[in-house]
Amino acid sequence: MNSAAPKPRTDRPLLEVRDLNGWYGESHVLHGVSLDLYEGETITLVGRNGAGKTTTLRAIMGLLSRREGTIKISGRDMIKVPVHKTAHAGIGYVPEERGIFATLSVEENLMLPPKVAEGGISVEEIYHLFPNLAERRNSPGTKLSGGEQQMLALARILRTGARIILLDEPTEGLAPVIVQRIGDVLLELKKKGMTLLLVEQNFRFARKVADRFFLMEDGHMLENFPTADLDSKMARLRQVVGV
Ligand SMILES: Nc1ncnc2c1ncn2[C@@H]1O[C@H](COP(=O)(O)OP(=O)(O)OP(=O)(O)O)[C@@H](O)[C@H]1O
Ligand SMILES: [Mg+2]
């Protein structure tokens, strides 16, 4: 036996997804997806375009017209919980399109979603974490760069009290210096004990923040492995993801 192999965990995952199936109308997109995410852990979903990464996040949040399977947060079954109640379980979603309201200021965008779970990060802490948002607190959403919009979308979810945050391609289309800044923020959130589920195609970025990689293909979860194994898995990833 490889002595470096991590011991299997015996504690309960914060988020457990078992045999999740998801549909868009008649179209069956997710086929028995399973994943587990432990408190304080960061995992990254990878897979080629159309593999079902975004759909997995949407299914966890209850945003599909139909889903079946098991989704548990701290052991509580979420599958029958309606979408507007999902956030109360301390889970938040930052979609790829970010959803910043153009006519509202940074601060208005920040204050928009209600605080629904215990222990949300205060506005003061958010401005400390994202100094550029503090500087721009009165600017309208339209004036923000892509990176600032991404940070605002993340900050807004942090304020709700979410302890599990789902982030869909947070670095997409951003300049390297901004990608670095987002990486630093995610590492700070990890230090605060946040639990993160990323979808990320930038492996160089993902390897700095993720503890494990989950590989998806055609709506199926193929395997997961610790980030320490990334180099030895690279040929397999190239084959599946096409990078
Ligand atoms: N709103 C929708 N209605 C119908 N089918 C959809 C819809 N959104 C996505 N799909 C289909 O579901 C499958 C999974 O798409 P999904 O967006 O989850 O992939 P992804 O892994 O996030 O890909 P990408 O890397 O391009 O973001 C694809 O076949 C896609 O065409
Ligand atoms: Mg996607």
From TrEMBL:
One protein family per Pfam: ABC_tran
Residues in ABC transporter domain copies: 15-243
Gene3D superfamilies membership: P-loop containing nucleotide triphosphate hydrolases
GO molecular function: ATP binding; ATP hydrolysis activity; branched-chain amino acid transmembrane transporter activity
Entry annotated with the keyword Nucleotide-binding: yes
Alphabetical keyword list: Amino-acid transport, ATP-binding, Nucleotide-binding, Transport
Coiled coil regions, renumbered to chain: none
Biological process (GO), any one: L-amino acid transport
UniProt key word Cell inner membrane: no
Sequence similarity: Belongs to the ABC transporter superfamily.
Protein name as annotated: ABC transporter ATP-binding protein
Biological source species: Aureimonas glaciei
